[in-house]
Design a protein that fits this description.
Blueprint: H1 2-19, E1 34-38, E2 54-58, E3 68-72, H2 78-92, E4 97-101
Antiparallel strand pairs: 1-3, 1-4, 2-3
Keywords: Signal
Length: about 100
């Protein structure tokens, strides 16, 4: 009986870990400029890439798809980075979002 309970607990834990949302991106402690990689496999990033703090958003037209790189303007502040990352995460779903300092 103990084995069955332990097995059920292991299955439940595995399911919870497999279906959990990805962890939020860690923000580098270094000052900018920053870039954010999203994807691959994201849907439309919409207004996130038209934010005034975004300098460019590039996705290479290759197959298989690769991540989109969103570069922030050189004088972007941490609040700008946080706002853009929050927007990208809201659009990206389960797709990874990674922040890099240049």
């Amino acid at each position: 009986m103990v084995g069955a309970v332990g097995g059920c607990a292991a299955v439940a834990l595995g399911w919870a870990l497999a279906t959990a949302a990805p962890p939020p991106p860690s923000t580098p402690q270094q000052p900018g400029p920053w870039s954010v990689a999203v994807g691959p496999g994201h849907d439309d990033l919409g207004g996130c890439v038209t934010d005034p703090a975004v300098a460019s958003a590039l996705t290479a037209p290759v197959d298989p798809p690769v991540a989109t790189t969103v570069a922030l303007v050189p004088d972007a502040e941490r609040a700008d980075l946080d706002r853009v990352v929050a927007c990208l995460r809201s659009r990206a779903g389960d797709v990874p979002v990674e922040v890099h300092a240049s």
